Amino acid sequence: MFDPQTYSARRDALLRGLASRGARRGTVLLLGNRESPMNYAANSYAFRQDSSFLYFVGLALPGLAAAIDLANGSVALYGDDATMDDIVWTGPQPPVAELAACAGIATARPRSALGRDLGAGGGKAGPILYFPPYRADSRAELAELTGRPYAAVDEGASLPLIKAAIALREIKSPPEIEEMDRAVAITVDMHRAALATARAGMLESDVYGRVAEVAFASGGGLSFRVIATTKSATLHTHSHDRRLEDGGLFLLDAGAEAPSGYAGDLSTSFPVGPRFDDRQRAIYELALRMHGRACSLLAPRANFRDVHLAAAREGVVGLKELGLMRGDPEEAVASGAYAFFFPCGTGHMIGLDVHDMEDYGETHVGYEGAERSSLFGLRSLRLAKPLKAGMTFTVEPGIYFIPELFAMWEAEGRFADFIDYAAVKPWLDFGGMRNEEDWLVTDGGARILGPAFDKSVAAIERARA
């Protein structure tokens, strides 16, 4: 946790943001997460606190909730003190009043008092403002507290609350940036461990295990499910049962979560053998060119949608040089033809979530309510708004050869003016490549989060040797 004043200041700023959006009456309800059982109540998944609760309250313990009265700014923390039956299994736990003080909250109440204090359906204290739920148990509790049908809970989430929280959370404070530098530093160690570990004959799970070991040894954990794969054309694959083979590629997309909850997220593509072959080197260097072009444009007021399109144009130019595309690069990007090789976005926001605030809705977080493209590829761009100093996000353009997409588009003759399907066909066994970094916008430009991590061909081959 940060100091109690940090959380008090965040809540005060939230109240000001809500007032500026016309919300001056009612109660902001912050539901912390409960334990989530895997297969029976006493055997639960590793606990992860709700990120909104972490940001405004800071307590990473299950079973808590907080309520903020918009009229007078008073705050109460709701939870239950440990019983002796609990203590036998868990050891002594701080009482809720002590936890409240750590978060800068003066009032502590039993969890059972939450419903009474709010009033069924929000009748006593005015409207209940809450974030969109992403867990079934939270949705059920919100239905009970607000009087809404379970199926209507999501649509009742408060848009002023969402917008006020985004305005705060998208700009990282210096202490938050320190935590993100820490998370990315651990993440770099994870990727360096993979480069030093992976060998032909191993299973993907051998590399995954080494990567996870580094993350947990840091005192934190993983910020998302690790992608450690030889099937690198699949953007998100979470199986780890294939064997590494000489001549193949390996793609690691993995991040550490610092004990504070802040995330790192890097991707590294490398040969299973000690060196890239000619095709691998060509695509790898093109992916680096795309990455470099994107990073060169990062600055306050730059629109990340333009950053994405610039990376796409660089990719088309390089693919033309390789004989895989043809035609005018600007037209290839405008038409969406480039997305055959680059079907995802260039990056996403990152912070307390690896896709920061995605539970609030990507349109609100990444687009500020602007219309989202319907084009294949571009519609997957999660961040498409002007950048501001203090914003943190990933940069991860890539090149992918997806056989199933090839079969469909070739059969339809889609974008045949731009894609040379005959030339592409011999590449269908290639896989894909991306190299991802985490960035911070500064007043004068932008900088990489965490330590330097050389991704040049020479550096990767030195690490593999």
Describe it:
This protein is of the alpha+beta class and 465 residues long. It folds into 2 domains: 4-169, 3-Layer(aba) Sandwich (Creatine Amidinohydrolase, Chain A, domain 1); 174-464, Creatine Amidinohydrolase. The chain has 16 helices and 17 strands. The chain has helices spanning 4-20, 51-56, 84-90, 96-102, 113-118, 136-146, 159-169, 174-197, 204-217, 278-296, 304-321, 329-335, 362-367, 403-412, 421-424, 457-464; strands spanning 27-31, 37-40, 43-44, 65-69, 75-78, 107-109, 128-129, 221-222, 227-229, 249-254, 256-257, 266-271, 392-395, 398-400, 432-434, 437-441, 446-448. Strands 6-5-4-1-7 form a 5-stranded mixed beta sheet. A 3-stranded antiparallel beta sheet has the order 9-10-12, with helices on one face. Strand 4 (65-69) and strand 5 form a beta hairpin. It is globular.
